[in-house]
Amino acid sequence: MHMGSEIGGTSAAECAILERRMTGHVALITGGGSGIGRATALRMAAEGADGIVIAGRRVTDGEAVAAECRSLGAKARYVQTDVTREEDVARAVQTAVGEFGRLTVAFNNAGVQERRAPLEAQRMETYKTVFDSNVGSVFLCLKHQIDAMLQEGGGRIVVNASVSGIRNPNPGLSLYSASKAAVISLVRSAAMENAPRGIRINAVAPGRVLTDMMLASGIADMASVAAGLPLRRMGQPHEVAEAVIWLASDASSYIVGHILSADGGFLAS
């Protein structure tokens, strides 16, 4: 759901006093056409990003977000991207470098969730789709983003994981949970490998956040789910975007290989 005159949950008037944490940065956001990806793109634009590449499958949504970013004063470009295809990922990275001169920030946000069902009812084709989309895509993105960032002497990468990769709260979504656990391991390994080379890699682990994926998850009573969280409410995409921006900014300069849970207290409960 788009928020009209609001920018990732922040009113247009308030944007004038936002920190400019993204000034000087060129960012690539996968899955940037909706939800957490869109909220992050708009926040980056509002905070002074020099250039933003929105990568995703849905052309209409991606073009709309790029236009919203431009309305906030940022240069922005949408690139139709299937993150399971290496040529598409490479093209998105090359677009950032070719059009904006460099790539310094990436948010690898794209992912999918299987239809809720017991493990024994899942099919091998579904397993491949979930792992290609959630784990294989992160590998491909890291591979090409790291290469581009090394040319600039460093950068910051944030990956969207999930609390499901730490503690599975979703019976019937075992493949999604397993894929996110793999993502967390991949992030930590990549972070240790690349920190000495000037690239900081971290992840956010959202909990119950009102996105298209959550709304399509098959949960019948969202109110009961929200009531079971310590904050007694679901999260909003812009609240996760704030965590992403922090990890991508100088404010987190000593944070490496960290999984930041934006979960309303779920893991602590």
From TrEMBL:
Q: Give the originating organism.
A: Rhodoferax ferrireducens
Ketoreductase domain boundaries: 25-207
UniProt keyword Isomerase, yes or no: no
Q: Any idea which UniProt keywords this protein has?
A: NAD, Oxidoreductase
The record's annotation in PROSITE patterns points to: ADH_SHORT (PS00061)
Signal sequence annotation: none
Family the entry assigns: Belongs to the short-chain dehydrogenases/reductases (SDR) family.
Q: What is this protein called?
A: NAD(P)-dependent dehydrogenase (Short-subunit alcohol dehydrogenase family)
Q: Is Hydrolase included in the keywords of this UniProt record?
A: no
Alphabetical list of Pfam families matching this protein: adh_short_C2
By its UniProt entry, which SUPFAM superfamilies does this protein fall under? NAD(P)-binding Rossmann-fold domains (SSF51735)
